[in-house]
Structure formats: structure tokens, C-alpha cells
Amino acid sequence: MERVRDLASEKAAVIFTKSSCCMCHSIKTLFYELGASPAIHELDKDPQGPDMERALFRVFGSNPAVPAVFVGGRYVGSAKDVISFHVDGSLKQMLKASNAIWL
Questions:
Q1: pTM for the full predicted model
Q2: How many domains, in total, are found in the chain?
Q3: What string of H, E and C letters represents the secondary structure of 73-93?
Q4: Domain presence at residue 76
Q5: CATH number at residue 51
């Protein structure tokens, strides 16, 4: 979990994904459309990916474990959570507050 914590804090917005995950692609696209440039960690392309995926599942309980979204170093949630935050307008506010976007 330490590696996940370190990576989750490296930028204002961080998304743990898998390259074959359609919801991961959707969340990445949403962030790009909002003007954010998140750090993307493809767990299926990282040698430590399986360990990080297990840690994400164990700590946050999301199944599947990806996408796992962090804003300002804080776990925001999975795709369902992020979409809910986007719909109610709070995702953009989180991104602004963490300096992931400026407008």
C-alpha cells in the first residue's frame, strides 16, 4: 500500500487503471475534458501492478479495484463515485481545490 500512497500523492490527480478497462478509459477522458492532466498508472503494465491492485481492493473495497481515483492525495472513489461527483458538480471543485485545474 505504501507504493500506492506514494504514487497517489505524486500529482494533484492520479488514476490507477488497466489498459483493457472501458470505465478506466471513460474516467481518464472525463478528466482530460475537464482540463486535468492526471498521472495514469496502468496496473496491468506495471510489474508491481497486481500487488497494487490487491492493496487498492483491500483498503478501499472497490470491486473491481480500478479505476481508483485520487485527487489531492485523497481517495475519491471508483468510476461510479467519480461520475456522481461530476454530475453534482463537486468533481470540478475538488480538481480546482487541489490545483489539478485552474478554470
A1: 0.93
A2: 1
A3: CEEEECHHHHHHHHHCCHHHH
A4: yes
A5: 3.40.30.10
Cis amide prior to 64 (ω within 30 degrees): yes
DSSP letter, residue 46: S
Domain that holds residue 78: 2-97
In a domain, 102, yes or no: no
Residues 30, 50: Cα–Cα separation, whole Å: 25
Strand partners, 17: 42
Cβ–Cβ < 8 Å for 70, 59: no
3-state SS class at 57? helix
Indicate the residue type of 66: V
The answer as to whether 103 is a domain residue is: no
Would you give per-residue pLDDT tens digits along the chain (103 residues)?
788 889 999 999 999 999 999 999 999 999 999 999 999 999 999 999 999 999 998 888 877 789 999 999 999 999 999 999 999 999 999 999 999 998 7
Q: Which pLDDT does position 74 carry in this prediction? A: 94
Q: Is residue 18 situated within a structural domain? A: yes
